[in-house]
Specification:
Structural class: alpha/beta
Strand order of the largest sheet: 8-11-12-5-13-14
Helix content: 55-70%
Number of strands: 14
Largest sheet: 6 strands, mixed
Oligomer: single chain
Radius of gyration: 36 Å
Shape: elongated
């Protein structure tokens, strides 16, 4: 699944999207509804000021007493009471707005967090190919930003819609009370001003999708600058990164401004239509006053309501625009939810039995890109307890071969089998629990050394942990640290040297106690001194295990029971060191003479 190819095709399926988001709203529905209920009087109270102008103009200004239900109220009392009444209603509305905002934010955040948690729970089970095909920035953006827009925004915009809707309704009611004839004109004009908002739905979707991709590129550039800071500094790439970042920011600007160019004309048109309506209302209202069909107070109340009505109507328009943006984001979110990883458990997946005989590659072929084979019809059997070294030319398929064992990828044809059983029949978690890995660049998580080792077996005993540490020759390192095992590691464990990180990874693998070990160039990046210590740790790890070693180092090669030579995706030679070195013009002999003979001479000196 390539996230940059997203189309968010469900963006206009409003009912379907709301039905999908509802399970996340349901647990907090009570608070959400309470917030929506409070939003009703918040909106209705918008009409208080304009409604109060009629009695003020008709009675207070003209010094007339008001008759209500047979009771006469002095205009002087009204003059004192009305300002206090307006302040009271404003304060009451303010309290309601606060409660409404609190409930909305609380509910929105809870819904957003639920969506993010579920999305992340799917992300961690994504295929390795998913991470190969998508940049870190785009993944972060899609899995964090879209849920914010989609789930948090939906409650907020519904609240805004209710407030604006009932605000408009209260003002229209005041207008109808003042003059139904003028009210019809005013509502018709504002409706015409509102209609252009419906013309930009598709443009919003297009811009939103483009901005998502660009934001992903921006985050990727920032992430690469952070992770590759030493390379940036060493090769003076600061200007390159600045230019790359600047270009992405400019792209974002251009996409956003393209929307402004296409929809920016709507606001002036809305103002023009509203102004024409107000001009007509003033003209026609004046005639109604002169003909005694309307009082000055009613006219003032009406005009004030009409002017105030423009804000909620415009807000409704903006809310509709925002809601469309929310639905676009929602479409992208559920696109992620609906993606089913290709590597998953079969419905009738079985438990992984203890390895009794062998791991076999039977007619295995694999390709990352269609019609570009990486492995070609590999047939290879590795017996239980055997150590197989895998060597060959760079890019020849060595790492790909071992990555098929834990099903980081699935074969395109053929099968990988444990004791004759296709590994695709096993439960994924159990299959991977039977394999330990030590890579060239082992990832350590932010946390303590203890936590990083115990990731392999979180219920390990203190004795098991100490055994793994000693076997990995990590005990001297830990003793030299002020906080020992509880020393906090920085991000990716960069506070340790390369050799120390490798030993932490080896301790982790030893603690796991799995029957199969995969070593992917575990010592190739180390200096001679570090390699010697790490190699001792690896020797302890390999005892009584079935081991696959991708190796460039002589010591690892000579310890192997057999050596497989993989060149350009083909198994070209297989045998012991002594057997392969005797093959005239052999691939292994050529590699040995190029890479290992000098090393051997250095060791023998």
């Amino acid at each position: 699944m390539k996230l940059k190819d997203t189309e968010a095709v469900t963006s206009f399926k409003y009912g379907w999207l709301l039905n999908r988001i509802y399970p996340y709203i349901k647990p907090f529905l009570g608070r959400a509804i309470l917030g929506f209920i409070i939003a009703i009087p918040v909106g209705l109270l918008d009409g208080v000021v304009s409604f109060s102008l009629k009695p003020y103009m008709d009675y207070v200004v003209q010094q007339k007493n008001l008759l209500i239900f047979g009771q006469e109220i002095s205009y002087s009392v009204l003059a004192i009471a009305m300002p206090f009444a307006i302040i009271f209603f404003a304060a009451f509305q303010g309290i309601l707005r606060y409660l409404n905002s609190y409930l909305t934010d609380w509910t929105s955040l809870k819904i957003t967090n639920s969506v993010k948690k579920d999305l992340f729970s799917r992300l961690v089970y994504m295929d390795t190919s998913f991470f190969d095909e998508n940049t870190s920035g785009l993944i972060i953006n899609r899995y964090l930003t879209d849920p914010d827009t989609a789930s948090r925004g939906v409650v907020e915009q519904i609240k805004t819609f209710i407030v604006s809707l009932f605000g408009a309704a209260s003002l229209i009611a005041v207008m109808l009370y003042s003059s139904w004839k003028l009210a019809l004109v005013g509502v018709l004009v504002l409706t015409c001003a509102f209609l252009p908002m419906f013309l930009i739905r598709k443009k919003i979707k297009s811009v939103s999708n483009k901005n998502t991709l660009i934001t992903g590129d921006i985050l990727t550039t920032m992430n690469e600058t952070y992770s590759g800071n030493k390379v940036v500094t060493a090769y003076n790439l600061q200007e390159r990164q600045k230019i790359s970042f600047s270009n992405e920011i400019d792209k974002s600007f251009n996409v956003s401004i393209s929307l402004t160019k296409r929809v920016g004309w709507m606001s002036p048109i809305m103002y023009l239509i509203a102004s024409l309506g107000i001009a007509f209302v003033i003209y026609y209202g004046t005639k109604l006053i002169y003909s005694n069909q309307m009082t000055a107070g009613s006219f003032a109340s009406f005009v004030t309501s009409l002017l105030l009505l423009y804000k909620p109507v415009k807000t409704l328009g903006n809310t509709m625009t925002n809601i469309q943006n929310i639905f676009v984001a929602m479409g992208r979110v559920f696109e992620l939810f609906d993606y089913i990883p290709t590597i998953k458990d079969k419905e009738d997946a079985i438990t992984v039995p203890d390895l009794k005989d062998s791991v076999c590659f039977e007619n295995v072929s694999f390709e990352y890109v269609k019609n570009t084979p990486v492995l070609n019809n590999i047939n290879l059997t590795v017996r239980k307890g055997e150590t197989l070294a895998i060597v060959g030319n760079s890019g020849g398929g060595k790492s790909t071969l071992v990555n098929l064992i834990p099903r980081f990828y699935d074969v395109n044809s053929g099968a990988v089998k444990f004791d004759g059983i296709d590994i695709r029949n096993f439960k994924l978690s159990e299959l991977r629990n039977s394999i330990s890995f030590v890579f060239q660049d082992n990832f350590l998580f932010t946390g303590t050394i203890r936590e990083n080792i115990m990731l392999a077996k979180q219920n390990a005993t203190h004795d098991d942990l100490n055994m793994a540490i000693k076997a990995a020759h990590l005990d001297e390192v830990i003793e030299s640290l002020p906080d020992g095992l509880d020393t906090m590691l920085g991000e990716r464990g960069l506070t340790l040297s390369g050799g120390q990180r490798q030993r932490v990874a080896i301790a982790r693998a030893i603690l796991r106690k799995t029957p199969i070990i995969i070593l992917d160039e575990a010592t190739s990046a180390l200096d001679n001194e570090s390699e010697a210590v790490v190699q001792k740790a690896i020797d302890n790890l390999m005892q009584n295990k079935t081991v696959f070693v991708i190796a460039h180092r002589l010591s690892t090669i000579k310890n192997a029971d057999r050596i497989a030579v993989i060149n350009d995706g083909n198994l070209v030679e297989l045998g012991t060191h002594e057997q392969l070195i005797l093959i005239e013009d052999g691939h292994y002999k050529h590699l040995y003479e190029m890479q290992f003979k000098i090393k051997e001479e250095e060791v023998l000196q």
